[in-house]
Automatic annotation (TrEMBL):
Residue ranges of every copy of the DUF4234 domain listed in the record: 96-165
Keyword Protease appears in the UniProt entry: no
Keyword Transmembrane helix among record annotations: yes
Protein name from the UniProt record: DUF4234 domain-containing protein
Superkingdom assignment: Bacteria
TM segment ranges: 98-118, 138-160, 181-205
Keywords for the protein's UniProt record, in alphabetical order: Membrane, Transmembrane, Transmembrane helix
């Protein structure tokens, strides 16, 4: 095996690296990985709390959004040339995570999941502006899902997955998963110990993060 600190090869039964003295026992490796996962979840939760707080307090960076959007009503012609959406006046959130989504949804008895969908739709509509599509917001999601006994929610996830995949090339990204992938996980994946919907949400989170990150880089917001 190899030392995780200095990278040199050492015997498999070695507990301490003879070169740098690092602890190489399996228990230490597991503890280190667990610590990394904990730190990642902690960072996701902190970011999610900050996003919610900014939504209540107001973010001065959002003041220019409507102005910038209205000033670029003819952008759809530019999209055919592969151009990037105009600057919206705000940095899009590109570090959403499945762990924070699950934990905060449980803590808030499901309320955060709706806020999460609202913000994701908002950011995707900005990053994908000009593609001729529109991701419906929270009100439509709740009402139509209720009326259709949840079928509209599948339709919403399907359309979002397709939209993210279709907009990948304009940012130089190759997104393999599309709406069909998401829908299959939502429906049939639910029979795999119920993890399907979480896998589907992970796909949407991962791909929306990619699109939003590419938008931020294109606008010099990194």
């Amino acid at each position: 095996m190899f030392c995780t600190k200095c990278g040199k090869q050492i015997p498999d039964s070695t507990k301490f690296c003879p070169y740098c003295g690092a602890n190489c026992s399996p228990e230490q490796d597991i503890a280190g990985q667990a610590g990394q996962v904990f730190n990642k979840v902690e960072k996701e939760l902190g970011s999610a709390f900050d996003e919610v707080k900014q939504s209540f307090n107001g973010n001065s960076n959002n003041q220019n959004y409507n102005q910038g959007y209205n000033a670029n009503q003819n952008y759809s012609n530019g999209y055919n040339n592969g151009t990037i959406p105009p600057y919206s006046g705000t940095r899009l959130k590109d570090d959403r995570g499945l762990a924070s989504y699950i934990i905060l949804s449980i803590i808030t008895c499901g309320i955060y999941s709706y806020y999460f969908i609202y913000k994701m739709a908002h950011d995707v509509n900005i990053a994908c502006d000009g593609d001729g599509e529109n991701t419906s917001g929270l009100v439509a999601f709740i009402l139509l899902s209720f009326i259709t006994c949840g079928i509209y929610a599948w339709f919403w996830y399907y359309n979002l997955g397709n939209r993210l995949a279709a907009n990948g090339p304009r940012y130089g990204l190759s997104i393999q998963e599309n709406g069909t992938t998401v829908l299959l996980w939502q429906i049939f994946g639910a029979f795999i110990c119920g993890i399907g919907p979480f896998v589907a949400m992970h796909i949407l989170i991962k791909n929306s993060n990619k699109i939003c990150n590419a938008y931020n880089r294109a606008q010099g917001l990194m």
